[in-house]
Amino acid sequence: MQDVGLDRQDISILNLLQENSQIPRLELAERVGLSSSQCFRRLKRLEDAGVIERYAAVLNKEKAGLDISVAMMVQYRKSEVNAREKTIELIQQTPVIYECYSVTGEYDFMLRVYCKTMKEFNILVNDTFQVSFISGLHSYLLMSCIKDKQSLTL
Hints:
Number of helices: 5
Distance between the termini: 17 Å
Strand order of the largest sheet: 2-3-1-4
Shape: elongated
Radius of gyration: 21 Å
Number of strands: 4
CATH topology of the largest domain: Alpha-Beta Plaits
CATH superfamily of the largest domain: Lrp/AsnC effector binding domain/regulation of amino acid metabolism (RAM) domain
CATH class of the largest domain: Alpha Beta
Low-confidence stretches: none
Largest sheet: 4 strands, antiparallel
């Protein structure tokens, strides 16, 4: 992807939106020292360029009832035809998996999983992932969150 060339005012806009995506546009313009039309044009350019992918609310997982947080490492069976594609498809179709990263090392994927109950997590481990194309699975129960930074440092 091409570098958009962010200047100081673009970075100010992005930082303020990361703090509060519902900031009134007039207040946003005032806080970055632009007219509302200039600020709107910059905002539109940042959206069109894909710098701003979407606007979203950040939910408290525990208050939303997702009490079980797990990091999982998954290894697919290299000897099985289309094992990687089958694993990716399974991951994409499993609602309790919220993030998936392709990683280096012994395992192929790292997953972030949120479940309402331990029973729900057991179903994931003992049923969903008990397929021929997965050869390894390791889980880490996440006990407490030390840092959960949602915004990017620009």
